[in-house]
Design brief:
Blueprint: H1 2-18, E1 35-36, E2 49-51, E3 57-59, E4 70-75, H2 82-95, E5 106-111, H3 118-132, E6 140-142, H4 146-156, E7 158-159, E8 161-163, E9 168-170, E10 174-178, E11 184-189, H5 195-205, H6 213-219, E12 222-225, E13 230-233, H7 235-272
Parallel strand pairs: 4-5, 5-6
Antiparallel strand pairs: 1-7, 2-3, 4-10, 8-9, 10-11, 12-13
Helix pairs in contact: 2-3, 5-6
């Protein structure tokens, strides 16, 4: 029975990750409403109340900082397989990101199971900080009541279902990016994440207020496709960046030639003014 339930959960995730343009075979009834409904630019309830890994009551607004985007995941801590696969993949990507959670962006995981307590959130946090292996990183793990969970899940369009016979949640796998004001900015899907799309999504979520000039130039070379939840190469942006690189190279060459000519012109004058030996 457990294997059957896990198969249903994986089927939902794979179906969501594929996100076909046309409907494929119908999903089992248990998974009919397990999906992501994208709500780009929707405001998340900042007063949604939770409990953190120390047992302290907090609100979502406590994790939104000026000029910092928020990377959010919705999972549950006793999930037998899917959540672990997703969070493990996210930790591996963040390990190679270059940016540090808690410094350039905030990182938050909320349990969708209202029966889980803060002690379990504490254990999960410790486990994933060890897996992350980034000294100084901060990864927040929260638990909460159903109304607070629903407030966040509904805002980002995260549709999941409790399977009472299997005592499991069927849910999709996705990560969400919120602006510093708590508006939904980007989605990335599946069980495999790469550092570059995460960085691009964070830059966009912060409306360009994080990242270097080079990061923002690289962003212009990619286009976010909401149908697939992926970043794909953007020809116009690539041409723009190539043109800028050509202009910089040409400018550097001309500057070098100008300096050489000045030195050549100054050499005879310097020799003329040199006192005789």
């Amino acid at each position: 029975m457990l294997q059957w339930a896990l198969t249903l959960v994986l089927m939902a995730t794979l179906a969501l990750a594929a996100r076909p343009a046309h409907a494929a075979e119908p999903l089992p009834p248990q998974l009919a409403d397990v999906a992501i409904a994208e709500h780009l630019d929707r405001q998340v309830d900042l007063d949604a109340a939770f409990v953190d890994h120390r047992g302290h009551r907090v609100r979502l607004r406590d994790y939104l900082k000026p000029d910092k985007p928020l990377l959010l995941t919705l999972n549950y801590y006793r999930c037998p397989m899917l959540c672990n696969l997703q969070l493990n993949a996210l930790a591996r990507a963040l390990r190679e990101l270059g940016w540090l959670a808690g410094r350039e962006f905030e990182l938050l995981t909320i349990s969708i199971n209202p029966r889980e307590g803060w002690q379990l959130a504490q254990a999960k946090r410790a486990s994933y900080l060890r897996l992350l292996r980034r000294p100084g990183a901060e990864w927040h793990f929260l638990v909460g009541e159903q109304r607070s969970i629903d407030a966040v899940a509904n805002a980002v369009g995260f549709r999941y279902r409790w399977l009472p016979e299997q005592q499991l949640y069927a849910h999709p796998a996705a990560i969400f990016f919120l602006s510093p004001q708590g508006r939904v900015a980007r989605y990335l899907y599946g069980l495999d994440y790469a550092p570059r799309p995460i960085k691009l999504a964070l830059i966009e979520a912060a409306a360009g207020r994080v990242g270097s000039t080079i990061d923002r130039l690289v962003l212009s070379c990619f286009h976010y496709d909401p149908k697939t939840g992926r970043y794909t190469p953007f020809a116009v942006g690539i041409m723009r960046l190539a043109g800028l690189a050509t202009a910089l190279l040409l400018g550097a060459t001309l500057l070098a030639l100008w300096r050489r000519e000045r030195r050549a012109a100054a050499a005879p004058e310097a020799a003329k003014n040199r006192p005789p030996a």
